[in-house]
Protein: OsmC family protein
Organism: Qipengyuania atrilutea
Amino acid sequence: MAITKTGSAKYEGLGKSGKGHVSSESGALKDQPYGFNTRFEDGAGTNPEELIAAAHASCFTMALAFQLGDAGYENGTLETTAKVSLEKDGDGFTVTRSDLTLTGNVPEADQAKFEELAKKAKENCPISKLLNAEITLETNFSS
């Protein structure tokens, strides 16, 4: 089984004065503003690191929920925060890490089993894998 989901971004103007909008196929994001001021200042809108953090937290949490379900646990709650770090790297920037913080309440599980399944979910959630994946690029240019 393979599925493909789409996100899109448009940027008008260049450099710090440019303004962008990001949208998702589902419509959960529709023309959400982003740009220099939302990434490096306190401007209203979103930024790539925040979107990656939300994607990583939600993917990991869902993966763990399925791991726990497959292990026979039926009840509980999971809450994850992901903090994605963007650091200066020479003339540019690099996303250097994603720190996951998990709070879980699974009454039937013990801590060792919970931590074992959480580690497995972290290693196998598709977004964790994506952060180490090959990235391709196709360009179409006009002037």
Notes: The chain has two domains: 7-38, 48-141. The domain at 48-141 is CATH 3.30.300.20 (GMP Synthetase; Chain A, domain 3).
